[in-house]
Amino acid sequence: MIGILKKTFVLSTFAMSLTGLNAQTLNWISSTEGNTWQEQKVKLQASSTDTPILKADGTEHIVTFKKWGTCFNELGWDALNILSMEDQEKVLDQLFSPDGDMKFTMGRISMNANDYARDWYSCDEVPGDFKLKYFNIDRDKKTLIPYVKRALKKNPNMTFWVSPWSPPSWMKVNNYYSVRSDAKVNKLPEEATIALYEGKDNVDKKFYPKQVTENDYMIQDPRYLQAYADYFVKFVQSYKEMGINIGRVMFQNEPWAYSIYPACAWTPEGIIRFNVEYLSPTVKKNLPGVEVYLGTLNTNRIEYVQKILEDPRMKDAVEGIGFQWWGGQILPKIREQYPNYKYVQTENECGWGKFSWKDSERTFELMNHYLGNGCEEYTFWNAILCDGGTSSWGWNQNTMLRINSATAEITYTPEYFAVKHFCNKVVPGTKVLTFKEPGDDKLPTMILQTPDGKFLVIAGNFNDEPKKLTVELSGKYLEVELAAHSYNTFCTK
């Protein structure tokens, strides 16, 4: 009986796949620099003399995609408030409304300051406050919480997750927010970095980081570790009191980023200890239903991630793993080795504030890579910034919406359209069937299936000249010429 039901399900899925092909016509949306979101019709062919670069019939399945999201930062809030109220509503609609361009349904919230906070802070800077008597989110009530609530008005069903850049400074071995010193950016004495490498020189430029820390910068005394786990609980509870439900926590943003802005260096041993012995049991006891994920992992040193995941206690401590930046390089191998975890992408690479079409191609490539390698969620960094997208310490980053602080003019950057080609059509419940990395042909391509059984093809051409794309969909052929440096989405209405 089970076999009959399974066969029936497969045949039903196949029939649904064909449903979108009976009309023989797809809606083709294309974008090139200066000519974005252009729509036309394209007919499917019964045969082809070309070998398809991808083919699918609806029975394939890499992952079922769940959520697109973005972060909520103070400088994003400041950029939004440069606009008139009418333009603010327009922007928020485009980002968060179910009928908007991006349809974001998830938000990342930084616990304490990050590099896009106005300045550096935590929710408790009273040294030795192990009982967190002085913990408060007063600052967030003026910036992040109003920002989040504006998004919730557009979509009350949004979900949220949390990851800190740095613990409170008094919980760290160097008593400071950053890990490394830089006289132009922070007030950390240069000699305070001694704990990082202890004078050792083990540089290998093939990896990130080029050299790994010798010590945990989070103090490993049980009083500090338990206080920090309790700190996560207090943060989630405090946000809930404000009407914002946080459903997931991750212990650290980029534990291998030894940065001059808020950060915290961790060893594999420290990561295991805090997650297994403190954070996970404390969250499970005090926050029923809140997930603990291991993230956000930002290294391509696979042996370090393997060491963490090989601890037999880890599988019960965390439900999933979040990758970003250099961590994306090892995602395919890690997922192959540890298939029982859920995988998510936690922060899109944010570039260098050039706002170029070439930079946006990198974003398009990353979305293709992470979804194709099994990530069921994808989080973008700042969706909106003003002027050069400059951080509080001087790093210019790309963003989707760029606000001129002098004129309040809104610019829809190339990044916006790279993202829109995925987010606008890949709705929750869409299945990722098969994909292809850019490769030598520079044609990143993905075939998906929407919840109503229709095929969806998303393809880029990163070449300087037009290129032919041939894809097979249940025995029918999509054959088109993609414009140079273009984004393309093919779908049925």
From TrEMBL:
A biological-process GO annotation: glucosylceramide catabolic process
The Glycosyl hydrolase family 30 TIM-barrel domain, residue ranges: 79-176, 223-423
GO molecular function ontology, one term from the record: glucosylceramidase activity
One Pfam family from the record: Glyco_hydro_30
Endpoints of the signal sequence: 1-23
Gene Ontology CC: membrane
Keywords of this entry: Glycosidase, Hydrolase, Signal
Hydrolase found in the keyword field: yes
Cited PANTHER family: GLUCOSYLCERAMIDASE (PTHR11069), LYSOSOMAL ACID GLUCOSYLCERAMIDASE (PTHR11069:SF23)
Family: Belongs to the glycosyl hydrolase 30 family.
Protein name: Beta-glycosidase
Native source species: Bacteroides uniformis
